[in-house]
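Our preliminary data section would be incomplete without showing what the modeling component actually yields. Below, a chain of 127 amino acids is followed by its predicted structure, encoded as tokens that our downstream tools consume directly.
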Amino acid sequence: QPQLVETGGGLVQPGGSLSLSCIASGLTLRYYAIGWFRQGPGKEREGVSCSSASSDGSTKYADSVKGRFTVSRDNAQNTVHLYLNSLKPEDTAVYYCAAVNLMFRPCELTPRAYASWGQGTQVTVSS
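Predicted structure:
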């Protein structure tokens, strides 16, 4: 049973940066697509970024974070990172990572495409 743990959330001022990590266990990361999602207060969960399994290798970003966020994976460490730069107050949310065994296809930013979820980590952007 795959398990995911997010780390790295916190409080940051507008314009600042944070680094989130998704540490996976119970799976071989190179065979899995990993998605990053967020859910702000009173909002639906939305896709932020994703990293496809190594057989595809592509990444995707939501328009709202393109050019500011970067996703990268370290298959040897079973970890996927999300680097958040130029943060805005509207980026405030609980951030989740999720995994799905998806080979030879690009990852998706749709929550229902993912089978396993972490517990989330809070990111607050405020002065």
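The chain has a mean pLDDT of 97. The radius of gyration is 13 Å. Preliminary results of this kind motivate Aim 1 of the renewal.
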